[in-house]
Structure formats: structure tokens, C-alpha cells
């Protein structure tokens, strides 16, 4: 599948990217929310890893721009979104799903391969529906 | 120029003169209640005139008119002229009339007081004169008696008894004693019931004094007795009055008014003090009784008068005393030697024979921060804080200048207990501090978590790609572990600083609490050797983990600060012989002197420099531990370091 990683922390992008590539996925990266939005529209990814706090557009703002927020999961955009944040106080699974994301993962990750595995499972579930 | 006019509902006579000389002339001719002098007079000053007035007409209340306020003039006026009030020019008519009214009242009070004192002295002298006169008479009669012994025998005994009665009267100090004396005196007349006395107390309260068995009882009446000053025998009005007030019939009553000289001071008439005797005397026995009592009437009146005057004087000061005693804060008047001149009940335990610091704080030296000296030297009110044991008082020190005194020698001290206010403030500061740390920690955690996520995740990716058993693989394992450890520390920091958000008590291992807290103390512990002995048995306690972590943090941090050079800090968990969980934190510092061992757990006690410690760490720890049903104590020997012991009930396995 085609994966978009939007995160302003280079090491997070690099590690996620390498873990995904190692599993045979195609990966595109974006260093902030604004680039992320442009890349999303241009590349039409199957799955997006989206950070919450970033320069430019934040994760939730980006989702609103894409239209995820308005249309919800039944909308035209079928992209699977995984929202990630290190500031767990502000967001959780509930708020993430309310804005159209499929999953919320708090940072730091315990094991990056578990994260990739969760992404694959979500994508598989979405495709078969 | 003179004028009489209605002044605040009262006729007041005003007289105005243009010069000091004329004023002095008038002062020598008659008495004035108030003198108002302008400071600027031709060839003289207002102060000079008032000083003259003070010397020649001391009862006249003195007021000075000044064009501007000059502290020099005020001081001079107070010291030389003992001025009652200053009025600034131009004056406000309303204020002026208030001041003049007050001055007139002041004058009246002075006159009344002086009159009362004069009267007491005079009456005492009269009693003395009467006694000595009578003694002389007795002596003369004794000589005469040698010639007509038998005839005079009876009269002499009577005379001696009268002299004894008068002597007894002069030593009386209360109405109770007077009643007992009268009762004893008339005992010879068997047909008399014990006496009943009616008198008017302060504030015109009609009082009746009577015997209840052997006890003298006093009660306030709704109505007063007859206004008549006649001696009354078996009159119906007196019987009705007593019957109504006592709720029982009175058959025959002799009413003997006692003439009160001082009653003349009051313009409104009040009923004369009256002695009532209920009796069953036959008509022929009444005459001897009346003779007997009329001989004693005058000294009796004088004695009663004196007692009531003393009551009145005492009552005036008693009103002030009870007012001050009613105030819950301690108040004392202290002189320049720190001796207590007067004090209210909340200041002293009853004794005045000591210094204020001895009575108030129980110490032989002046309290730290005592405002007495600065108040005396500056002459202006001062405020400072002093400590009494664990409590802090704000001391308001007001210098008092007694009329005519050159320098201030007394101050009024008003003590307000500000301990709780300070404590509350301290707690607010502490909780704000914790909130600020929490916010900061949250932000830092976020900033650190992002790169840490990257480091750890990338290490995991690299480990997956690298062949195992290579040196690089081993190195990356270390990097991954270090990142994981860092994450844990940040997590703990967040938990620690979030204290209060999740205040549920949960079973948790004391060992875990210690292990989670120590990484945050690495900097503090760096300069010392540390030994950690964690109990191998289960040491679960039911606590709020964040609060318990704060306690461990405080104890270890204090231990580190107690040691100047390389010391050893020992942290130990164990199960005590009585089955409780124990945490022991020991240092090898200077130890805790015996005299402060009790106070270290009190709020705001700190041995650290100003600004370094809040003095709340140990008190907060004590509160927390007691909240969890445990106790905290300290063992220490001077120079041998100290061990803080936390004991908590042991609970079952976590979960």
C-alpha cells in the first residue's frame, strides 16, 4: 500500500519510513502539515501517519482541509488515518475518531513494528469492507 | 464680644477676646469649659496662652487653631499646652461643632472625676474625724464616770459599741460586708428579719441586696422603691413594693432612707438608698430600735456612699477592662524596659510581674523582630512579625504619649495571629509551584518525546536490519535501552507533577515508588555516595502514588541538602517487626539538634537560607503520610546524621 508520513520530527519519519519499506510498502514523507496536505491531494495515499502538533497546519486542521472531518468515515475519502501525538493529554482515541481518524497512537511507541502491524491490519480491514 | 446661643441643642455661652492678655484676665475671673486659641496672636502665641491656661485653669479643655499643620507646632502644643484637639484653618463648621462638643464633654468628665476623688478623700477624713472625736468623748466620759459609775455604765457601753461600729464601717470594702455588719449590729433586736438594702448602681440600675440564708444576694429590680427621704414606719407603699418584688407578703416594714451626698452630683433625682427591715416589733419596742439605728445612720450613709463611689470608679475602668478582655487578640501596654504595664486576658495568664517577652513568648530575651524600640524612637506606629512557639504573630505597636510627657515611654501592643493566613498563603504558593512544574514538565515531555520516539524506533528498525552478534548490533541495543529508560523517566516526571489530578489511593509497592522517584534526584544525589536496600519481601502500601513520590522526593532531597561534603545517603525499605512497611532515609550530615526535633514537621520551619526552602516539605510529607494512615518520625544524634522513618500499614498484593 501507499503510505504518507506527516511528522515534523525527522527521526520519526525516518524510522517509520524504514519500517514500512522493510515490509514492502511504498512511502512518501512530509515535514509539516502544509506539505502534508499538498502531498495527500497529489499522491492519494492508502494510509496516513499524521502527527498532531506541527508547524503550518496541525494534524486536525489538515484533516478538516481534506474533508475528513465533515464527511466522516462514510465520506468519499477512504484513506485510513492514524493520528499520533506525544501530548497525550489533549487527544485520545475518541477525539481522533470524531475527526475521522481510524486510530490514535500515543508517542512514544514501545515497538515500531507493532505500529506498522496495526496499520497493515487497519488497511486490510478497510479493503475487505 | 460675648454671645449665648443654642449649640447642638444646649445653651452654651461663648466669649471672644482679641488678645492673650484679655484671655488671661478672664481665666482668672471665672471658670470655662473650653478655651480655643489661635496660634498666631499679637505679641504672643496660642501655645503660650494654652500653657498659661493649663497652669492656671487646668480643668479647661484646650483647643488650638492652626493655619497649617507643622509637626513642630503640634509637638510643642502637646508637650507644653497639653492640647486636646487641633483645628486647621479654614475649618469646617460641622467638624468644629463636633470638636467643641467633645471638648465640653471632656471638661465635664474631668470635673466629675476630680469631684468624685475629692469626695472620697473628704468622706474618709470625716469618718476619721468622727471616730477620733468619739474616742475623745469616750475617754472624757470615762473620767466623769468615776464619779457616777452605775448611772453612766449603760451609756458608756452604748458609746463604746457605737465607736466600734464606726471603726468597722471604715474598713468595709463591699456592700456584702456592709450588709453582714448591719445584720450583726441589729441582732440584739430579736423581732427583726435580716435587712434588705436598696441602692442605685451605675447606669441608674435599681438594685436590691438581701439575705438568702447566710448568703448576701443582689438582684436588679424592674422598679425602684419610694423616692421619699422620710423615715417610714409600717407604711403600706413599702410593704406593697417589697411584696411585689419578692413575691411574698411583708407584714410590717420599717424603711430607713440613707442620705447619699454624691447623688447631688446628678441633676436627675433618683431614689435614695434605703434600708428595709421587716419586723414583728411591738409598738413600744419600735422607739428604742429607732434610737439605736438613728445613732448609726450618718456613719452608715457615709460608708455606703464611699463604697458606691469606689464601685463607680471601678465600674468605669471595669468597662474598659472587659472591653479589652472581650477582644480575642492579645493586647498589652509595654514600657521602654519591656515591662507589661497593663494587658488584657488573652495576653497574660494573670501576672504582670514580668517582661512582655517572658509572659507572651516565655523567653528571657527580647523577641526577634520586636517593634518596641523602633516605635519608641520614631514615635510612630510600627508593625512587625514575631514567633511564639509554632505560631506567628503580627505585632502592631502604637506609641502612646501621656499628657504632659516629653518622650514616649509606653507602647500599646496588639498581637494578631497570622499563622493560618501564612500557612494558607504558603500552601497556595506550593500548589501554584506544583502546577507550574506540571505545566513545564508537560511541555518538556512533549518536546522530548518526539525525538525519543524517533531514536528508539530507528534503533528498533536498525536492530531488525543488522545481523545479530555484531558489535554494531550490540551498540544499537544499548541506544534502544537508553531511549526506553529516558521515556520511563519522562513518564514518571509527568506522573509526579500531575499530583492531585488522580487522587485515588491504590495498593502499590514501596519499592516501586522509590525506584520511580530516584531517577529524578540524580542531580541532587550526585555529590554523595548512595546506598539502596530494597526489601525482598512484598512491601505494598495503599497510597496515592504521586503524593507518595513527593514524600520520597522531599526526604531524599532534604537528606542531600543536610550533607555538605561527600556524605552517604542510605535508602532502605523493610518490613518492621510489627508488620508495617517502613521506608528509612538516612544521611551522614550534621544531625538535628534535640531542641528543634519537635518543630521540624511544622509548617514554615526551615533551616535553609531564605528562598532556598519553603519550610513546607516536611510538614507536607507529614500530612500526606498521616492521610495514608501512617506516621513519620526522625532519629538523630548531633554530628551523627539523621534518619527519617516512614511507617505505613502493609496491604495485600497489588491489584
Order of strands across the biggest sheet of chain B? 10-9-8-13-12-11
Rg of chain A: 13 Å
Number of helices of chain B: 16
Q: Please provide the ordered H/E string of secondary-structure elements of chain A.
A: EHEHEHHEHEH
From the 3D structure, determine the CATH topology of chain A.
Rossmann fold
Our Rg estimate of chain B from Cα atoms comes to: 42 Å
Count of β-strands of chain B? 25
pLDDT average of chain B, as an integer? 81
Strand count, sense and barrel status of the largest sheet of chain A are: 5 strands, parallel
The side-by-side strand order for the widest beta sheet of chain A comes to 2-1-3-4-5
Number of domains of chain A: 1
SS-based class of chain A: alpha/beta
* Name of the CATH homologous superfamily of chain A: Response regulator
Largest sheet of chain B: 6 strands, antiparallel
Shape of chain B: elongated
Runs of chain A in which pLDDT lies below 50 for 5 or more consecutive residues are 69-75
Tell me which protein chains meet in the greatest interface and how many residues each side has.
A-B, 22 and 19 residues
Task: Summarize the topology.
The complex is a heterodimer of chains A (129) and B (655).
Chain A: E1 2-6, H1 10-22, E2 26-30, H2 33-43, E3 47-51, H3 59-66, H4 68-71, E4 80-85, H5 93-98, E5 103-106, H6 112-128
Parallel strand pairs in A: 1-2, 1-3, 3-4, 4-5
Helix pairs in contact in A: 2-3
Chain B: E1 2-7, E2 10-15, H1 20-29, E3 34-38, E4 40-41, E5 44-45, H2 46-56, E6 61-66, H3 71-81, E7 85-88, H4 93-145, H5 149-170, H6 175-185, E8 196-201, E9 205-212, E10 215-220, E11 232-233, H7 236-246, E12 253-258, E13 273-278, H8 283-326, E14 331-335, E15 340-343, H9 356-361, H10 372-378, E16 382-388, E17 391-400, E18 410-417, H11 419-465, H12 471-497, E19 506-509, H13 510-517, H14 522-525, E20 529-533, E21 540-543, H15 545-562, E22 568-575, E23 581-586, H16 617-627, E24 631-636, E25 642-648
Parallel strand pairs in B: 3-6, 6-7, 20-22
Antiparallel strand pairs in B: 1-2, 4-5, 8-9, 8-13, 9-10, 11-12, 12-13, 14-15, 14-18, 16-17, 17-18, 19-21, 22-23, 23-25, 24-25
Helix pairs in contact in B: 1-2, 2-3, 4-5, 4-8, 5-8, 11-12, 13-15, 15-16
